[in-house]
């Protein structure tokens, strides 16, 4: 794993020693090379034998997420080029350093064996994200957004620290490889309920669960493009990844304790999708759609069947790519008209036809069109939840309908119809933007042909 | 103050604390505490302002009360157990254990005897405040670490929990930086004392890291003589690197991973959980977030809300830097980046 971590750390000297003409070229090309080196990780044998050391390992759950993380770094760098154009050199380098340090923490988080190391790095990802949101965001609400983001996550995760230490003392070790063999069932007194809650709430806040989702629209909307991309695509999946790792020690309480959360998720899915239909702010719409998709992932993880785990992992990867692409598209709008309001730029298909193609593809994957992996994920989750309880099909089916509604609403609002009269200086799409969109779309299309690699642990 | 006089007073302060730390006879410990207190009074009044005199008076009154209580406890203990060593205090003697804790926590500035800390720290200059919050903690903590087996854990845990609460909530409404650091000191003392009855080496660890961070904070604030949040927001004009260092140091003081300030909180939570004090650990951890909130406010006003371009309206006239900042860089690195060195702790006994 060091062959990925050390090059990522070495990107720091690359940033600080590049001159002003070469910095973007250097960063993008070297992060793409790190991508290439991470690809062999996807070749997973089924017997969990990819243990690099006592500290780092990779299995079929963490390698797709790891791949997603390293894939996103060059995309984030490409997306940030425009809005950092006017900044001074030091500030550009600081921004890129924040992105690289976030990347380093994320890679280590997804490959950590020891759960306390996972916790420390999970919290460590908060600091660069906070700095990116608060320092480089564009509106005054970014201050509030940073505080909400930091404190929601910390309040949820401090009980997790206490719970992990308690589990370590009672089980003997928190090394994931050892825990697979040494795990015991949680006993049934009421204090185990509290232990279960303490373990889960951190990840519920991160996912986010419907009642605790207040930080997400704020943080996503106020963050600059790279911040939104990494938040939507990777940081939310940290919650899902953590929950999937902890399911071993949380048995058998999950069968009983999961009920309120499943109900909140099912209702929250519909609520947040419906809010999307009434949004005027484009980034806010995409942020609420993230809550809706992640609610499905939470339902899947709490149900603990092999198909639901496959669906959860596939949905996480698919949603990561789709949501990041939607934020890039929204940002391309924002850079032209300097506003996130959807009404101000309509009928863009007449001006930017190629970008309209990307809008179409992104909206289609967002509404889980066959044969994309979004559909595979959602279908597995919906089938698992139907087998768990037949009533859920009403909610999940309704959610799929409303998702289709708002995705098409977003598409037709921005692309179709008569263009607005006051927009007369839309610059044509840059090659950089088209590359960005195609690099989001190509993995989605190619994974359609072999979804086995993103199906996770129970394939 | 003239240099020979300052030297004599500083040496006396040093001697007082050293006398307390190396003694095992209660009388000498008390004498050391008194020498320390009396010699710091001229340092507090160095400023010759009425506010400093008021601060010195408050400090003197509370510390004298604590010393008197300590003397009472010492004599009472000698009367009942017949010996003057620190390691043999009878924990079953209710009066002795209670008044001992009261006296020592009053010296340290822990709840419910914390009321003097913000006011005294505010009334003196920055460097004197640093001396107050760092050096003055050494003597009482060394006493408590010598006698930790005789302390009533329930009372100490209660005081520690209340200190964490008061340190968090009290600092929320402050804009004066010295008061913010005073409330931070109250909260950190709470963390240190919570673990004393279980594992005193962790009190030492927390004390060391807290001392380093407080010295760094005061030094950085002293560079521009910033005393309020408002003046701190001009720091980006003078030295942007110091704004970044303030960011990292405050995050470390607030206990965010992956910085070193997380290490004492983590290990203290671990020891408390091992001793089945899970509720206390959780409550203290969540209350530490209140501390983090007002550090975040400071961070927002210094480094995270900078103008996109430098402006010349708020520039201060750039004189040659006169204030020395010894050891600032090594201290910053030690107090923010050494979390990966935490396995070293297993070599301590």
TrEMBL record, chain A:
Residues 1-109 form the NADH:ubiquinone oxidoreductase chain 4 N-terminal domain. One of its GO terms (molecular function) is NADH dehydrogenase activity. Core subunit of the mitochondrial membrane respiratory chain NADH dehydrogenase (Complex I) which catalyzes electron transfer from NADH through the respiratory chain, using ubiquinone as an electron acceptor. Essential for the catalytic activity and assembly of complex I. This is NADH-ubiquinone oxidoreductase chain 4. The keyword Hydrolase does not apply. Its EC number is 7.1.1.2. Belongs to the complex I subunit 4 family. It is found in: Mitochondrion inner membrane; Mitochondrion membrane. It comes from Microcebus murinus (Gray mouse lemur). Core subunit of respiratory chain NADH dehydrogenase (Complex I) which is composed of 45 different subunits. Keywords: Electron transport, Membrane, Mitochondrion, Mitochondrion inner membrane, NAD, Respiratory chain, Translocase, Transmembrane, Transmembrane helix, Transport, Ubiquinone. It catalyses: a ubiquinone + NADH + 5 H(+)(in) = a ubiquinol + NAD(+) + 4 H(+)(out). GO terms for biological process: ATP synthesis coupled electron transport; electron transport coupled proton transport. It is a multi-pass membrane protein. NCBIfam families: NDH_I_M. One of its GO terms (cellular component) is mitochondrial inner membrane. Residues 112-399 form the NADH:quinone oxidoreductase/Mrp antiporter transmembrane domain. The chain crosses the membrane at residues 21-42, 54-73, 94-110, 116-137, 149-174, 194-216, 223-244, 256-277, 284-303, 309-330, 351-373, 379-409. InterPro entries: NADH4_N, NADH_Q_OxRdtase_chainM/4, NADH_UbQ_OxRdtase, ND/Mrp_TM.
TrEMBL record, chain B:
Residues 292-345 form the NADH dehydrogenase subunit 2 C-terminal domain. GO terms for biological process: mitochondrial electron transport, NADH to ubiquinone. It is an enzyme of class 7 (translocase). GO terms for cellular component: mitochondrial inner membrane. Its main location: mitochondrion. It is found in: Mitochondrion inner membrane. The chain crosses the membrane at residues 5-22, 28-47, 59-79, 94-117, 129-148, 154-173, 204-221, 242-263, 278-296, 325-345. It catalyses: a ubiquinone + NADH + 5 H(+)(in) = a ubiquinol + NAD(+) + 4 H(+)(out). Residues 23-288 form the NADH:quinone oxidoreductase/Mrp antiporter transmembrane domain. Core subunit of respiratory chain NADH dehydrogenase (Complex I) which is composed of 45 different subunits. Interacts with TMEM242. This is NADH-ubiquinone oxidoreductase chain 2. It comes from Microcebus murinus. The gene is ND2.
């Amino acid at each position: 794993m060091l062959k990925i971590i050390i090059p990522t750390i070495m990107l720091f000297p690359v940033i600080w020693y590049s001159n002003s003409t070469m910095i973007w070229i250097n960063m993008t090309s070297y992060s793409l090379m790190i991508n290439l080196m991470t690809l062999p990780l996807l070749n997973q044998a089924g017997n969990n034998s990819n243990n690099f050391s006592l500290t780092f390992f990779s299995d079929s759950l963490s390698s797709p997420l790891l791949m997603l993380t390293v894939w996103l770094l060059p995309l984030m760098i490409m997306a940030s080029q425009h809005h950092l154009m006017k900044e001074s050199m030091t500030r550009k380098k600081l921004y890129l350093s924040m992105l690289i340090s976030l990347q380093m923490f994320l890679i280590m988080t997804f490959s950590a064996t020891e759960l306390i190391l996972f916790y420390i790095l999970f919290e460590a990802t908060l600091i660069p994200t906070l700095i990116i949101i608060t320092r480089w965001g564009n509106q005054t609400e970014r201050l509030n957004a940073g505080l909400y983001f930091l404190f929601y996550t910390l309040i949820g995760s401090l009980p997790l620290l206490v719970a992990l230490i308690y589990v370590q003392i009672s089980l003997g070790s928190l090394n994931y490889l050892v825990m697979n063999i040494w795990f015991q069932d949680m006993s049934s007194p009421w204090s185990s309920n509290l232990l279960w809650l303490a373990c889960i709430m951190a990840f519920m806040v991160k996912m986010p669960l419907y009642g605790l989702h207040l930080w997400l629209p704020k943080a996503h909307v106020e963050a600059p493009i790279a911040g939104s991309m990494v938040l939507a695509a990777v940081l939310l999946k940290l919650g899902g990844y953590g929950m999937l790792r902890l399911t071993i020690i949380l048995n058998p309480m999950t069968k009983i304790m999961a009920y309120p959360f499943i109900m909140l998720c099912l209702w929250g899915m519909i609520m947040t999708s419906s809010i999307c239909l009434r949004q005027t702010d484009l980034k806010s719409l995409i942020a609420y759609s993230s809550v809706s998709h992640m609610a499905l992932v939470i339902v899947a993880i709490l149900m603990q069947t092999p198909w639901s785990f496959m669906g959860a992992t596939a949905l996480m990867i698919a949603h990561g790519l789709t949501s990041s692409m939607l934020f890039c598209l929204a940002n391309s709008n924002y850079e032209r008209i300097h506003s996130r309001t959807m009404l101000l730029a309509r009928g863009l298909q007449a001006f930017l036809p190629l970008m309209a193609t990307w809008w179409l593809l992104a909206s289609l994957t967002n509404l889980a069109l066959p044969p994309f992996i979004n559909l595979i994920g959602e279908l597995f989750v919906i089938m698992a939840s139907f087998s768990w309880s037949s009533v859920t099909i009403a909610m999940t089916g309704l959610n799929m309908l409303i998702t289709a509604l708002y995705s098409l609403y977003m598409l037709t609002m921005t692309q179709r119809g008569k263009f607005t009269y006051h927009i007369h200086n839309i610059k044509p799409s840059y090659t950089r933007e088209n590359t960005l969109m195609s690099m989001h779309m190509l993995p989605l299309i190619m994974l359609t042909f072999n979804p086995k690699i993103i199906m996770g642990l129970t394939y | 103050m003239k240099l020979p006089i300052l030297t004599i007073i500083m040496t006396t302060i040093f001697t007082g604390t050293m006398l307390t730390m190396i003694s095992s006879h209660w009388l000498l410990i008390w004498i050391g505490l008194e020498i320390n207190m009396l010699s710091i009074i001229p340092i507090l009044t160095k400023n010759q302002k009425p506010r400093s005199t008021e601060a010195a008076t408050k400090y003197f009154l509370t510390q004298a009360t604590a010393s008197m209580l300590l003397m009472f406890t010492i004599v009472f203990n000698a009367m009942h157990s017949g010996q003057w060593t620190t390691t043999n205090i009878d924990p079953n003697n209710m009066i002795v254990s209670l008044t001992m804790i009261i006296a020592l926590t009053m010296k340290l500035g822990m709840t419910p005897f914390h009321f003097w800390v913000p006011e005294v720290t505010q009334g003196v200059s920055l460097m004197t405040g640093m001396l107050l919050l760092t050096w003055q903690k050494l003597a009482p903590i060394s006493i408590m670490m010598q006698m930790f087996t005789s302390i009533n854990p329930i009372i100490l845990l209660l005081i520690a929990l209340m200190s964490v609460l008061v340190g968090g909530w009290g600092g929320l409404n402050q804009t004066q930086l010295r008061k913010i650091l005073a409330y931070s000191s109250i909260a950190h003392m709470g963390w240190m004392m919570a673990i004393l009855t279980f594992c005193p080496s962790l009190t030492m660890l927390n004390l060391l890291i807290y001392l380093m961070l407080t010295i760094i904070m005061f030094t950085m604030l002293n560079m521009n003589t910033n005393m309020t949040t408002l003046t701190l927001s001009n720091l980006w004009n003078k030295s942007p690197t110091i704004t970044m260092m303030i960011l990292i140091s405050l995050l470390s003081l607030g206990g965010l991973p992956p910085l070193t300030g997380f290490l004492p909180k983590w290990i203290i939570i671990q020891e408390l959980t091992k001793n089945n004090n899970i509720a206390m650990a959780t409550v203290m951890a969540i209350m530490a977030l209140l501390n983090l909130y007002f550090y975040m406010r400071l961070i927002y006003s210094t480094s995270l809300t900078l103008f996109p371009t430098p402006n010349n309206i708020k520039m201060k006239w750039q004189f040659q830097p006169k204030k020395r900042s010894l050891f600032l860089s090594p201290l910053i690195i030690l107090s923010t980046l050494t979390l990966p060195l935490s396995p070293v702790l297993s070599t301590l006994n």
